[in-house]
Each structure stands twice: as C-alpha cells, then as structure tokens.
Amino acid sequence: MGNLNTAISRSISSIPEKRLNNHYIILVIITIAHFINDLTQAIAPAIYPQLERMYNLSLSQIGLITLCAQLSASVLQPFVGNFTDKYPQSFSQFFSMCLSSFGIIILAYADSYLWVLVAVICIGTAASIFHPESSRVANLSSGGRLNLSQSIFQLGGYAGLACAPLLAVFLIVPNGQRYILWVLLLTCAVKILLIHVGLWRQKMLKSTVTTLSNQVEAERKTDTLQVRRNIIILLILIFSKYFFSAGITNYFQFYAIRTFGLAEGKSQLLLFYFLFATAVATLLGGMLADRWSKIAVIRLSVLGSIPLALLLPYVDLWATVFLLIACGFILSLSFSPILVYAQQLMPHKIGAISGLFYGFAMGMSGLGAACLGVLADLYGINYTYTIISLLPLLGFAVLFFSHKQKAELGS
User: Fold this and answer.
1) Over the range 115-146, which residues count as b (16 or more CB within 10 Å of their CB) and which as e?
2) What confidence tens digit (pLDDT) does each residue in 51-105 have?
3) Among 3.30.230.10, 3.40.190.10, 1.20.1250.20, 3.40.30.10, what is the CATH number of 2-410?
C-alpha cells in the first residue's frame, strides 16, 4: 500500500506546479458538486414531518420514500462504476446534475404521494451516476494523499446532508413546498463548474499520470480469498454505519417531538448538529488515516461509537444531544479509510468498487429506513429508537481482520 501512494506522489511531483494546483481546484469543484448532489438528496427526508401532515402518511410510507430514493441511488452504482471503468464518461457528473434538477422540479410541484416517490427516484438515479466517477476524479486530483482527498470529497456530501434540515427550517417549512425550487440556483451554478471538470477529465484520460498510477496499482498482487474477506468485512462495517445513520436521519425527529415535546424546527436543528458532526469527522478521519494508519482509525471509529449509541434511549434531552453529536462524529471517522482501502484492494475497478460501496451504503440506508418504519408503526417510535441504538454493535466485525490483513490495512 505504501509503495502505491509513494509512486503516485512521485509521479505527481514531476508535474509543473501550475498543473498540480489545477488538480486541487478540480478537487474543490468536485467537492462542491458533492455538496449540491447530497443536499438535493436530503431535502425530502428533511421535510418528512411536513410531508406526513400534507399527505397523512404513516411511518411505513415515510420509510418507503427513503427506500425508493436510496435503492434508485444504490442499485445502479456498481454497474455505472463498472461501465465507466471500461468506458470513461468525462461529463457524467454534469448529466447527473441535470437529472437531479429535474427531480427537484417534480418534488416542488408534487401534489400527491406518488409524485413524491417519482421525484426521489429521479434524484436517487442522479446520485448513482454522480458518485462512482466523482470518487475516481477525487483520487486523480489527490496529489498522492488518497485518504485526505476522499475525506475532502466526502466532506462535501456530508455538509450537503447537514444543510438540508437548515434549508427546511428557514426556507421550505415557513414558505411552502414551492420554495424547494430555490435549490435549482445551486444546481445550475454547479453545472457550469462540472463542464470544467469534464474538460479536465478528458485531458487526464491521455495523461501519463493516470497511466502511471494505474500501472503501479496493477503491479500489486493480492490473494483473491483474502481480498474477498476484506471486502465483506468492510461492507459489514458500512452496513452498521449507514443503517444507524438512516435510523437517526429519518426517525430521530419523530422521537424528539414525541418523547421530549420539541417543536419541529428544534428537532430539525438537532438533526443538523448530528449531520454536521459527521461532516467534520469525515475530513478528520482522512487526515488521521494518512498520518497514522487506516486500521487504527477504523477500529477507533466503529468500536468507540458503540457505548455512546447504547446509551441513547436512556438519557434526557441534553444528554441525547451530546451523545448524538459524539456518536455521529466518532462513527463517521471511518468511511474514507474504508473506501480507500477497498479501492486499493481492487485497483483495476476503482469505479466499480466506489459504486459498490456508495451503492451499498445508500441501499442499506433505504432498506433500513423502510424496515425501521414498519417497526415504528407496529411497536412505536421508542422501541424503534432502541433498536437503532444497537446497530453499531455490528462494528465488532472489525476484530475479524487477521494479523496480515491488519498490517495491510494500516499501511
């Protein structure tokens, strides 16, 4: 692993400084685009209480909205990633943002539950196109610091998720559903930036840097059985993280309103604190992984969040706020190291692996939201919240890395 990063760093160090700075500009642009992409994805969950009132929805129907959104965003991603591995699409992010804009328009004018589902499916499909190639672009613009570049890229996404509740509180809820259309200003602006990314990507396809980094990665020999075992363990960790996050994102507002008597706006602000903590932790996790080791960061993240999560159903409001922020922060340290390690395990299929992990994460979010919605309807929101607090226990899967695997993961 260390040889791979060293070789990429050396190859990029030979690039003129002006061109290298352009790489970092691309990373900033793709991070901004990730912010807008995930903001549009998170608008529907942010206004769930409003949708519940407008269409008299059950919690199972709320869960179905998330399921449609996340499945449309997850199922296609590995196929999109595999396709772009073979046939790179320089302007795929631009076209994904066009589709996302279309979904925003439908959501703003939706006058029935069915149209809400159509809107979130459009937005989810756009995300399935955006993520695999964007993750590859983040790697190409990394300057050899793969964990940090992925963390910066992820920071954009988490920041978008965190800002959606604020958008709901200050714009959509007070003024009505049509005000969702203001998001189009952001999507239109970022389309201009993504055209620049597409042109840069076309040049990179002919670049010796891309060729060299791929050649160095191709020389790396791995044991197929060990790779599969690693991938499975990493997917279990992703399952744990995103199932838990889906539960908090979709149902914490209802728990806070019904248990603590909070107003809708205050419950959305608490959700913002949770999501903001995950955004900050994502950036920090990549920095720590580059400085120390991926295995150390992953173990700290998945094991350190367990005791905090287990306490959530049994504390008062202020303790809940503290635990929620701390748990979201610690649990989110690991995503970038997990993704970078998985990409390095299968260097010929960076797009497919990115699509698999993003897709699996989103699929688990959708499936988790749907299952938890059924539980909430059957047994109540308090029982469901207790189940959510147990999900990080799956993080004990990290203990099943062998000593050899730990050495690889930490390099």
Assistant:
1) ebbebbbbbbbbbbbbbbbbbbbbbbbbbbbb
2) 888 888 888 888 888 888 878 887 778 888 888 777 878 888 999 999 999 999 9
3) 1.20.1250.20
